[in-house]
Design goal:
Elements lengths: L1 H32 L5 E2 L6 E2 L10 H6 L18 H11 L5 E7 L4 H14 L7 E5 L2 H9 L4 E3 L2 H4 L2 H4 L5 H18 L3 E5 L4 E2 L4 H5 L6 E6 L3 H7 L2 E9 L3 H10 L8 H11 L3 E2 L1 H4 L6 E4 L6 E4 L5 E2 L13 E2 L10 H10 L17 H7 L8
Parallel strand pairs: 3-4, 3-6, 4-5, 8-12, 13-14
Antiparallel strand pairs: 1-2, 6-9, 7-14, 8-9, 10-11, 11-12
């Protein structure tokens, strides 16, 4: 009958339109979230797709995991069309493992980030693998690039919307949005990322500490902010040292973060996202500051661990316990973030490794350069 033929034709046309739409959607989304082809297998020389990337051409995967930026209120609509996205892809293709350790810094923190690099690549044995500096100023980028230090430059103004720039009181505030966006993209591509503050000086290789919690999606040091959540939980996750594993559960965490509208620091956004996911902490552990504190989100099964101050010191940094710490991250008094203050806090822990006159001309690069600007033991 005529109506039956019309109905079949209508269904066929609808399926054709849907198929074309999904195909075009994948094509457009590819520029934002296409796989950098995972990690390279050392023995075969071939790239292995990571578990979140394996279905990147599957429309059903995107229907289930829509990619959203962690702070969409403050970012430009086409923020991920900038050149640094391709730079990041190229870097990820060279990695032999699926974990990246990243320290973020601006030009004014140049000496502090060099000191951190010395701790991670010279003092710590074995040295940290896959270290990258996320530079938010072109001058710092050019300097570190000339020294053959792995670095990627992200101009905050290429990422943050012009209207939102007016709400940020300093470059320090802009860094929060930049690094969360950067780390969110890395996680979505299937790579673990460890974020470090430049004044969180490493004392030991921290990877074995993370390996003690194989089921955890987020592992970080102890913080006290946001205050309302610290009062509720006993402590919060500090973004000064924070591992974000690339899992399907972490995708839900990032998606939750994108729904938070208020202007917060990166630490505030991380903890607010956990709060919105109804995380339940082990309150018995919360009362014991010498133990790690475990939490789980009932719906998404996201597991988080807040490490003890006995392994990464914050508010109880004690020289007598220095040998047991993995990192020295003494906080600023009255939130003073001057370079002098950061240096003094490192000097307090005898973890200021950069020599005087470090900026004198030298042709050395890479780790050899870092060795050349490192204080001798008797100078500490």
């Amino acid at each position: 009958m005529l109506w039956r033929r019309f109905f079949i034709a209508l269904i066929s046309l609808t399926l054709l339109v849907v198929t074309f739409t999904i195909w075009k959607w994948n094509d457009v989304m590819g520029q934002y979230v296409s796989s950098p082809h995972g990690r390279k297998d050392v023995s075969s020389g071939k790239y292995i797709l990571n578990h979140l990337n394996a279905h990147h051409n599957d429309a059903r995967f995107f229907l289930k995991h829509t990619f959203k930026l962690p702070a969409p209120k403050y970012t430009k609509q086409h923020a991920l069309q900038s050149g640094w996205v391709e730079d990041l892809k190229r870097l990820l293709k060279t990695l032999s493992t699926t974990r990246l350790s990243i320290v973020t810094a601006s030009q004014e923190h140049k000496v502090v980030v060099i000191n951190w690099l010395i701790s991670a690549l010279v003092k710590v044995q074995p040295p940290l693998e896959n270290v990258l500096v996320l530079a938010v100023s072109s001058s710092l980028y050019e300097y570190l690039k000339s020294k053959d230090i792995p670095v990627i430059y992200v101009d905050p103004l290429s990422l943050i919307s012009s209207q939102a720039v007016e709400t940020f009181d300093s470059v320090f505030s802009q860094i929060h949005v930049v690094r969360l966006t950067f780390f969110r993209l890395i996680n979505h591509w299937g790579y673990d990322v460890v974020m470090y503050d430049s004044d969180a000086v490493l004392l030991r290789n921290i990877q074995p500490l993370f390996d003690m919690y194989p089921g955890a999606d987020l592992i970080g040091s102890a913080g006290i902010g946001p205050e309302k959540l610290s009062s509720l939980w006993g402590r919060t996750l500090c973004t000064g040292v924070l591992l974000l594993r690339a899992t399907a559960k972490t995708e839900h965490f990032w998606s939750t973060m994108s729904t938070i509208g208020s202007h917060l620091t990166d630490q505030g956004l991380v903890n607010e996202a956990l709060f919105k996911m109804n995380i339940e902490w082990n309150m018995t552990e919360a009362k014991d500051k010498t133990s790690a504190m475990h939490g789980i989100s009932p719906r998404y099964k996201l597991q988080s661990v807040i490490l003890s101050e006995e392994v990464i010191c914050r508010y109880t940094c004690d020289m007598a316990k220095k040998d047991q710490y993995f990192a020295w991250h003494k906080p600023a008094i009255n939130k003073e973030r001057t370079i002098k203050n950061k240096i003094n806090r490192a000097l307090d822990g005898e973890v200021w490794y950069l020599i005087d006159g470090w900026n004198s001309a030298t042709d050395l690069t890479g780790v050899r350069w870092l060795h050349s600007v490192t204080r001798k033991v008797d100078q500490l």
